[in-house]
Write a structure and sequence with these properties.
Blueprint lengths: L3 E10 L2 E11 L4 E5 L6 H9 L6 E6 L2 E2 L5 H6 L2 E4 L11 H10 L11 H5 L1 H5 L10 H14 L4 E5 L7 H16 L4 E5 L3 H7 L2 E6 L2 E7 H6 L1 H8 L1
Helix pairs in contact: 3-6
The structure holds adenosine-5'-triphosphate (ATP) and magnesium ion.
The site of magnesium ion has 4 residues, from helix 1.
Length: about 230
């Protein structure tokens, strides 16, 4: 049985059907990408999984347990972390405070920030007392990933981690995500518009079009899809 199994979920905003019976699964330790153009519902899917926008129908089994209908904090405590599009770190808090928030979310009081975090993000140790707003965009993205890691997740939902990030930093982020998967065994569900980045990192993928999955399979098959070919040609 997959670590996360999404069956037939539908999500509305007001009367608009944004996700229409989406099915998706991810095994323990896998890296799976979700591709699709602007506005097809990728972020809505993540908000649905993490409980911020509960689906009206369908089921979300995480480690055999139903998540649909649960509150975000309950889902996070089960071992899921969400790194939102646009990072959403707290700019006026320090790096340390941002990381502490990542540990609080586990529901346990006063647990120290895991030292492994600084092995992946050594610069955060040097900047620990700085306000997050003083970090560069790429560093803020890494802080957002580090904050997610602070909750000791089994799966991470990463929404467009390369958006607005310069190429040299994208390489760092690639390596970090790869290592979090291979060394920490964290399953990665990745939404990306950077198709090249996503297909290099993943073994399987899904393509969303107007709220439905139109293609899924190993990355080799995804590369053959006409939608992806048109992206890759750009
Ligand atoms: N809070 C909201 N209220 C109403 N409609 C919304 C809301 N959030 C998103 N939508 C609509 O839902 C659809 C899907 O949006 P979503 O943000 O999930 O797309 P996306 O695939 O993540 O796009 P992008 O690649 O631009 O991030 C869009 O038509 C969007 O306008
Ligand atoms: Mg989005």
């Amino acid at each position: 049985m997959p670590l996360l199994e999404i069956k037939d979920i539908s999500i509305y905003y007001e009367d608009a059907l944004i996700l229409n019976k989406v099915n998706l699964n991810i095994e323990q330790g896998e890296v799976v990408c979700i591709l699709g153009r602007n506005g097809v519902g990728k972020t809505t899917l993540f908000r649905g999984i993490i409980g911020l926008r509960p689906p009206t129908t369908g089921s979300i089994l995480f480690d055999h347990e139903e998540m649909a209908g649960k509150a975000p904090y309950q889902i996070v405590r089960k071992g899921m972390s969400y790194i939102p599009q646009g990072r959403e770190i707290f700019p006026d808090l320090t790096v340390e405070e941002n990381l502490k928030l990542g540990t609080f979310i586990t529901g346990k009081n006063n647990i120290p920030i895991r030292t492994e975090i600084f092995e992946y993000f050594p610069f955060l140790k040097e900047r620990i007392k700085d306000k997050a707003s003083r970090l560069s965009g790429g560093q803020q993205q890494m802080l957002a990933i580090a904050r997610g890691l602070a909750g000791n997740p089994r799966i991470m939902l990463l929404d467009e981690p390369t958006e607005g990030i310069q190429p040299s930093i994208i390489k760092n982020i690639f390596k970090i995500i790869k290592d979090l998967n291979s060394k920490e065994g964290i399953a990665i569900l990745l939404v990306e518009q950077n198709v090249d980045f996503a297909l290099k990192l993943s073994t399987r993928g899904y393509i969303l079009e107007k709220g439905t999955v139109v293609c899924e399979g190993p990355v080799d098959r995804i590369k053959e899809d006409s939608i992806v070919k048109s992206y890759l040609a750009v």
